[in-house]
Amino acid sequence: xxxxxxxxxxxxxxxxxxxxxxxxxxxxxxxxxxxxxxxxxxxxxxxxxxxxxxxxxxxxxxxxxxxxxxxxxxxxxxxxxxxxxxxxxxxxxxxxxxxxxxxxxxxxxxxxxxxxxxxxxxxxxxxxxxxxxxxxxxxxxxxxxxxxxxxxxxxxxxxxxxxxxxxxxxxxxxxxxxxxxxxxxxxxxxxxxxxxxxxxxxxxxxxxxxxxxxxxxxxxxxxxxxxxxxxxxxxxxxxxxxxxxxxxxxxxxxxxxxxxxxxxxxxxxxxxxxxxxxxxxxxxxxxxxxxxxxxxxx
Amino acid sequence: xxxxxxxxxxxxxxxxxxxxxxxxxxxxxxxxxxxxxxxxxxxxxxxxxxxxxxxxxxxxxxxxxxxxxxxxxxxxxxxxxxxxxxxxxxxxxxxxxxxxxxxxxxxxxxxxxxxxxxxxxxxxxxxxxxxxxxxxxxxxxxxxxxxxxxxxxxxxxxxxxxxxxxxxxxxxxxxxxxxxxxxxxxxxxxxxxxxxxxxxxxxxxxxxxxxxxxxxxxxxxxxxxxxxxxxxxxxxxxxxxxxxxxxxxxxxxxxxxxxxxxxxxxxxxxxxxxxxxxxxxxxxxxxxxxxxxxxxxxxxxxxxxxxxxxxxxxxxxxxxxxxxxxxxxxxxxxxxxxxxxxxxxxxxxxxxxxx
Lengths: 298, 355
What we know:
The complex is a heterodimer of chains A (about 300) and B (about 350). Chain A is mostly helical and about 300 residues long. Chain A has helices spanning about 1-40, 60-65, 70-100, 105-115, 120-130, 140, 155-180, 185-195, 200-225, 230-235, 245, 250-260, 265-290, and strands at about 45, 55. Chain A has 2 domains: about 1-40, no CATH class; about 65-295, MetI-like fold. With about 350 residues, chain B is of the alpha+beta class. Helix content of chain B is about 25%, strand content about 35%. Chain B is built from 8 helices and 20 strands. Chain B has a 6-stranded mixed beta sheet, sandwiched between helices. Chain B has a 5-stranded antiparallel beta sheet with strand order 13-12-11-14-20.
């Protein structure tokens, strides 16, 4: 008996020893910055660099959360996510359904469809920026020429960067949906065919419910991806642009606060907001969406 | 209700033939069992009736009409899968109603038919559960209810009992037989389990390597197997097969000579494979000398596995109340020669007496 206890104690010692490397990595790069960020949020920085910051408690957070810039940023962020996640997932699902058949050469299409995962944000932004260019782009060629030009247009700038984010998300979305489709139980689909389901019924009553764990996973991943989009906006819009106030999503706002405005306090408050928003959205998704998800149970 | 017929049906996947030149008639209202080891083509044959597998050659008909080009949903067949294939996101009630909803059956009738099917299979209390909350046996019954609720022309069952434990398998086996008898629906039942086949089938079609070996009622299959494969596949344990040489009035085997019984007098001189069921052998004071290798007690009966002439294995079936030998004992095997079978030594085909 005592031998068992001793062995267990020895084993748990070994377990902790094995945990140390990842504890160090997480501690240095995640837990410490995370805690430090909360401290930064309590200090206000003077508008000129080099001067000492001073403790202001929660008042800085209060004024940031009440500012119109922050409200606009929050609205832009949610609009952006609301465009990117559903359209990205739907597009991925459509491509996955198209590629989900045993045909010769289908592998080539799978590679093409998933290739956006490995394409760089910068390249994508430049390509799409060129396509959207008011002089040499695709739109004037098609005879569509909004004024001001799309990327400077307060109405169209956000949808324009969303399109690039959707295009980039398509690859991951396609891979997730393909994996989901390939893991569907073949016999259940066959049973539905024999039970008289046409393709429409089959898709809505059988495939989609069976795919719901995958779709749910896609929503969570897609939401996090959309909240973290940055490069498209930085490259195509930038703070000098007229469309900027409408594309200043939270993550970009944080970057602006820190690198351009040199205001770690503001950036820290915004980071906490982003963290809280993502955490609560994910919790909400688990709480409400998961009720509609059907895991193949035992 | 309808007959199902295969006429010269083949199914090839690339270069491999899963089913070759299958010609078989399933009578109206019959329970026909497709029996064979895995990879023999029995499931492929079943799936061709369902329309889940395209037919490479030949014609499959349901009723009077060929169905080669008919969509699965228009064939009016219901299938029970080995994995049950229930819709995991629907309650038992919705699962059973699913085919009726597709047929646009009116709500009141749909509910009463679904409830009647559920009652038949003892599922009334489980109607609001989801498949994930049911045991294997209960899921199996939901799958059966979903099949019978449609009142289809043909039931197709693909090893529906193989995921159940032994006790439940025996019970469900009997339930399916009763159900089929009551409904009188033509049924094709696929299994690799010869006990299932023997106890359930009106007739059994034995397949091997994509080819049909024999179709016959269970008893005939057991008593007059068409070839050595059927002889050894059916029966538990299967028939003992012994190489022999016919000359004159005897068959000479490794264990000694056997006087040719009158019913095998037509067998020509030369090489032949003799078959003898384990129950047609008994331990005696005279006969073929053998060494006991293993004694398997099954309760009602005992299997004595012996070696004749060193390595030739022979199984003897004894009743439970007989004196059991010990491992290593020297025994004599007495052969009931009136129950001896003869097969062609080359092809394995049964050597029938000319009529």
